[in-house]
Amino acid sequence: MAAFLNRIGQLGLGVAIVGGVVNSALYNVDGGHRAVIFDRFTGIKQDVTGEGTHFFVPWVQRPIIFDIRSQPRNVPVITGSKDLQNVNITLRILYRPVPDQLPKIYTILGQDYDERVLPSITTEVLKAVVAQFDAGELITQREMVSQKVSEDLTERAKQFGVILDDISITHLTFGKEFTQAVEMKQVAQQDAEKARFLVEKAEQQKKATVLSAEGDAEAALLLSKAFTEAGDGLIELRRIEAAEDIAYQLSRSRGVNYLPSGQGTLLNLPQM
């Protein structure tokens, strides 16, 4: 029995050792990832390993895992426009490596290929494109600028085995001097609009004054004609109407007494 148990123990130990060796010779490639194998004797193998569990030779070989999913990156660049204005641009890029070119990417650039490639080619392309437009065109033709940057940068990234899924300009500002010049221009335009409004208002007031004067002159001519034709009768009529209106207003006042003509009123005066 002791010999049997000893045998079982030896078998268990052997299985554990074998299991440990086998486990150390396995590696997993998760979804959205790829692996390349580095061999100590032959270097980087040109085969790219897909998702799943795979074997490799411990100590001799080493798997290198790459994420091939699209990843975002913001690249800020300071450059100059065609009219020599300082421009601050931030480009947002969605990038991923070409799976079949992973051995080449690792051999030439390493696993941090994005740090080595994207900032340099983005700066190069942006400087070349922005220099073709002046500051005003960068604002009014932003879509055209973005399209040209996207085309040139995509073509440039292909040389390094990198795919750019999306490129967009998220930030675009100019130097302090240009910003102040734009603000001064806007203030000047507002002042010009205000002055134009005041001129138009004065013109309208002038026209209104002329029309009013013409109306007064025409009214005076009509009155003069009426006086000529009716004599003093019209004036007398207007005098009577005015007197009636005054009398009516006085009659409604409590502090005014109306006395008929030719009569007197005895006032209650205090005795001495």
What class, by secondary structure content?
Answer: alpha+beta
Q: The biggest beta sheet, please?
A: 3 strands, antiparallel
Question: Within the largest sheet, what's the order of strands?
Answer: 3-2-5
**Radius of gyration of CA atoms, rounded to a whole number:** 49 Å
Helix content: 40-55%
| Overall mean confidence score, pLDDT | 81
Tally of DSSP helical segments: 7
Output the helix-strand order. HEEEEEEEHHHHEHH
**Principal-axis shape:** elongated
Low-confidence stretches: none
- The termini sit apart by 161 Å
Strand content: 15-25%
- Number of beta-strand segments: 8
Detail the topology: elements first, then pairings:
Elements: H1 2-24, E1 26-29, E2 33-39, E3 43-49, E4 52-55, E5 61-67, E6 71-80, E7 86-97, H2 102-108, H3 113-130, H4 135-140, H5 142-158, E8 162-174, H6 176-230, H7 233-251
